[in-house]
Amino acid sequence: WPALAGDIEAILSLKHERNAVILAHNYQTPEIFHTVADIVGDSLALAREAATTDADIIVVAGVHFMAETAKLLNPNKTVLIPDSKAGCSLAESITAEDVRKLRAQHPGVPVVTYVNTSAAVKAESDVCCTSGNAKKVIESLGVSKVIMLPDEFLAQNTAAQIPGVEIITWAGHCEVHERFTAEDIRSVRESYPDVVVLVHPEAPPEVVAEADFAGSTAGMIDFVGQKRPGRVALVTECSMSDNVAVEYPEVEFVRPCNLCPHMKRITLPNIRKALELRQHEVLIDPTLAARARIAVERMLAVR
Ligand code: 13P
Ligand code: SF4
């Protein structure tokens, strides 16, 4: 604890000295989420906040694609990620060349790209989406066919909500959510018959089918805040339950959950180091960034 307190104190004063802001994803550990973070949220909320901050330095306590999105929206600011190896299995699953090939196979079909991708992939896309706005973004296009990349399960789960639109998918998966099974949910319900089950839409459709609600991490938090279930299972990354449980002590949180090894690369000591040494700065080629920014800004314009 004294070491943690020392890091927290140092981070708070470095933020003040350097006019820095810390954006933290909902999957960050409670000692980051509840102490040093200025803004917490899902991928959509972090992108929206990144677009409006007046800080000089943005530290992203999250994974690399989130830091890249922040940089796309703030080309003149310093964006830091405390561990540059904090990746994502979805972002790794597809390249810009893959998107160009898909476009050639499906001429004229718009490409909707999950934010969990590199800037190079975003640059080949028409519009981005997150798990919190995928349906709205696709509906905003007013077309009957889209390519949705790279998360196959998010695409299938979104397609189920928009029956009039054909969605061409890519076989990318989140290594955290693909491991959940329908049997996991059934066994939680057997142990706790009154449990309310919330699932992230990166999980396979048969898992979503067993749930009471599927939504982004922010969607799950809102659900708990509004409905106050007596007992809830957040079928997603483990830190979600830890973070939300602090806010709702009267709600009992049961698992299953899986850890994201990429999110867990971010720690208080490396956030402190990032601020002390201004490392690791996220840089994107300006020509590529200009194209990728269009896809992100189109997404942010969808309300
Ligand atoms: P959201 O927070 O946007 O729901 O995304 C979950 C996720 O897996 C981010 O890496
Ligand atoms: Fe990527 Fe899944 Fe980890 Fe999110 S939870 S960063 S989608 S691997």
UniProtKB/TrEMBL annotation:
Please provide the record's keywords in A-Z order.
Answer: 4Fe-4S, Cytoplasm, Iron, Iron-sulfur, Metal-binding, Pyridine nucleotide biosynthesis, Transferase
Outline what the protein does.
Catalyzes the condensation of iminoaspartate with dihydroxyacetone phosphate to form quinolinate.
Q: Which InterPro entries match?
A: NadA, NadA_sf, Quinolinate_synth_type2
The gene is nadA
Sequence positions that bind [4Fe-4S] cluster: C88, C174, C260
What is the protein name for this chain? Quinolinate synthase
Q: Which residues bind iminosuccinate?
A: H25, S43, Y114, V115, N116, S131, H200, P201, E202, T217
Taxonomy of origin reads: Bacteria, Pseudomonadati, Pseudomonadota, Alphaproteobacteria, Hyphomicrobiales
Q: How is the cofactor bound here?
A: Binds 1 [4Fe-4S] cluster per subunit.
List, alphabetically, the NCBIfam families matched: nadA, PRK09375.1-2, PRK09375.1-4
